[in-house]
Amino acid sequence: MNNRSRYLLVILIAFGAALAGVFVGRSYIVPPPPVESELHKLLHQKLDLDSVQETKIEAIEAQFAIQRQALELELRADNARLAQAIQTEHGYGPQVSAAIDHSHQAMGELQKVTLEHIFAMRSVLRPEQAARFDDAVVKALTVEAK
Question: What InterPro entries would the database entry show (predicted)?
Fold first, then answer.
């Protein structure tokens, strides 16, 4: 076996190992569900909402979906501006700094809108439901990453 064949064999083995790693990672190492998913699961499956509450919460969620989508598009545009600034400056210069600051403003706005959404949903709940909801919010915000 010549050197070229050996290199090709090593590359094929490395590629196969990488594919196996990706498969194992995707199959067995599942990230925790997002906080939002846990809260919605609690709302829609465990709090026994009445039909009026369901209708109000659906309207709140629809409005939030529009706001979130707009802010996520803004964040994508911010990332593109940051990429352009990095490509232009090749270092941490004023354009990169400005792009980062702008991105942080959009991230902060998304966080504020998300919290307003959470409090709007909470306002629809009865006191016993709100207590369970509050516990879930606190737990979701304080759980440590694994």
Answer: Metal_resist
